[in-house]
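Structure (tokenized):
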């Protein structure tokens, strides 16, 4: 079965949770794509989706210029699910009434649902209490006969408007203390809406609700697996590249490594990987990456030690964005020099992921600031290269699953995200060879102790930061005035939000003791207990 034949279209109205909808559907092994709400009816028709999801969004349906869609999508014969703003918009377009809620709902709430609706089947308890006191019936009872004592579902609300009057043909299939219409359905036209967010973890049965929509209502088949993806991707790469040569830059990160291995699976020795040692890598990182990929896959890897060139470019630069631009610019120059040494190169392979693609087509516009170290577009024009992006349909967790399916070692697959500018943006202030060496040693101890405690895979990122702060200390019988290292460790699902790790005191103690004793030039270690937001994960 074609992995793209069973697919869901998500129309994005600007919700912070839109990517989570896609992730949940993908986790159910059904392919889906996110497109801006204003992509047009012709595109929606041509997409040939088995179902359409209207995401939430920050607007009110009555705001001037509020995002909307052509209401003819409801006549395409394709099931539609509106989530929060999506439900309100569907109600308004189809003749219902939406109004400002007297009581806004943000956070956890309880809703009572009708399990006769396909949206909620096999989710709620089967025994319900009738309105008549003391009477219990194990069979299904009409929704209107259920008391408020039935077992409710916990959900996550985030809205200021609510549906006041349902469109013709709809009925309520869920209610809460705040609204009689927490969910609605028109079973004949297969149009559904939920006022809450089933895609977030704070709605415990959310996955089941979304699965009911894609499997019971849209009748999708679970064909989206990484095994089937490999077969399709390899065939596509072979067709696109033919017998030409491909060059790929690898950094040791998951994305570039998996992209390289997938392309190698397709074209073998026609792929050459270039690993640029920029002088701001972690301890022994270049050696580990090169040996791992060569040992496991016998790939053709060219390693370039350009650390002196990069450190010269970074000399005296303290602004983080200028650091990024200096590193990005020099990377392009080094990469171009090496790529030109390879004959008949026609393609450049990159590990672009789906979140990058979504951002580039967002109706809100691309990011105001694109991180310079990821921008190697100049190579495409200068060398007249065509782009190969085999991972552009995947989320990060899918990339890891793909890597495992390709037989890649855990050392690479489970690697925590590491920034393109490397240690340069974990050294606050000027970057020098001495400061790089100090941070490399401290960072190595941090990772060693966290892995030794069995915590590494439980964290999104864990690392050391070298501060531009010296403090007084006492070592032996002498006073010292040396560097401060900050420890950062966070948990996250996708890096969009993050919480600091409640690290066991004994692990913190071992890290602090070892860093101060073993890393010359450090006499103090502090722990960062900031969450994202308001802080970011990285310090620069």
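Design, position by position:
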């Amino acid at each position: 079965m074609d992995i793209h034949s069973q697919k869901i279209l998500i129309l994005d109205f600007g919700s912070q949770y839109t990517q989570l909808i896609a992730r949940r559907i993908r986790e159910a092994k059904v392919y889906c794509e996110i497109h801006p709400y204003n992509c047009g009816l012709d595109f929606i028709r041509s997409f040939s989706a088995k179902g359409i999801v209207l995401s939430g969004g920050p607007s009110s349906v009555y705001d001037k210029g509020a995002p909307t869609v052509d209401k003819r999508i409801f006549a395409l014969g394709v099931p539609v699910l509106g989530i929060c703003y999506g439900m309100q918009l569907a109600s308004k377009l189809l003749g219902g009434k939406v109004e400002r809620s007297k009581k806004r709902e943000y956070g956890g709430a309880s809703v009572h649902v009708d399990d006769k609706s396909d949206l909620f089947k096999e989710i709620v308890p089967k025994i319900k209490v009738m309105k008549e006191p003391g009477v219990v019936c194990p069979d299904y009872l009409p929704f209107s006969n259920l008391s408020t004592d039935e077992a409710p579902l916990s959900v996550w609300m985030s809205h200021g408007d609510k549906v006041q009057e349902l469109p013709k043909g709809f009925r309520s299939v869920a209610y809460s203390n705040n609204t009689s219409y927490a969910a609605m359905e028109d079973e004949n036209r297969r149009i559904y809406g939920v006022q809450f967010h089933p895609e977030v973890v704070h709605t415990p049965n959310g996955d089941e609700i979304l699965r009911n929509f894609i499997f019971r209502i849209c009748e999708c088949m679970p064909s989206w697996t990484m095994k089937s993806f490999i077969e399709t991707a390899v065939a596509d790469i072979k067709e696109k590249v033919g017998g030409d040569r491909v060059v790929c830059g690898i950094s040791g990160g998951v994305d570039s490594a998996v992209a390289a291995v997938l392309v190698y699976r397709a074209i073998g020795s026609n792929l050459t990987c270039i690993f640029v040692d920029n002088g701001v890598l972690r301890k022994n990182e270049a050696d580990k990456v090169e040996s791992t990929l060569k040992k496991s896959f016998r790939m053709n890897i060219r390693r370039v030690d350009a650390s002196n060139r990069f450190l010269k470019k970074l000399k005296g630069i303290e602004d983080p964005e200028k650091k990024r631009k200096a590193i990005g610019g020099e990377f392009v120059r080094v990469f171009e020099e090496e790529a030109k040494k390879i004959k008949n190169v026609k393609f450049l392979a990159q590990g672009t992921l789906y979140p990058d693609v979504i951002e580039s087509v967002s109706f809100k516009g691309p990011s105001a600031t694109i991180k310079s170290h990821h921008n190697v577009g100049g190579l495409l024009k200068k060398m007249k290269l065509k782009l190969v992006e085999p991972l552009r349909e995947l989320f990060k967790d899918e990339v890891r699953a793909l890597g495992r399916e390709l037989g890649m070692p855990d050392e690479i697959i489970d690697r925590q995200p590491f920034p393109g500018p490397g240690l340069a943006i974990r050294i606050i202030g000027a970057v020098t060879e001495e400061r790089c060496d100090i941070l490399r040693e401290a960072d190595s101890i941090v990772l060693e102790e966290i892995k030794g405690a069995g915590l590494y895979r439980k964290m999104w990122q864990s690392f050391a930061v070298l501060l531009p702060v010296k403090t007084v200390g006492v070592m032996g019988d002498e006073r010292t005035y040396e560097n401060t290292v900050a420890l950062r460790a966070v948990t996250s699902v996708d890096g969009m939000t993050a919480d600091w790790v409640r690290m066991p005191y004994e692990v913190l103690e071992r890290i602090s003791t070892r860093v101060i004793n073993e890393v010359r030039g450090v006499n103090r270690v502090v722990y960062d207990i900031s969450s994202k937001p308001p802080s970011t994960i990285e310090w620069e």
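Reviewer-requested clarification: The CA atoms of residues 7 and 31 lie 5 Å apart. The mean pLDDT is 87.
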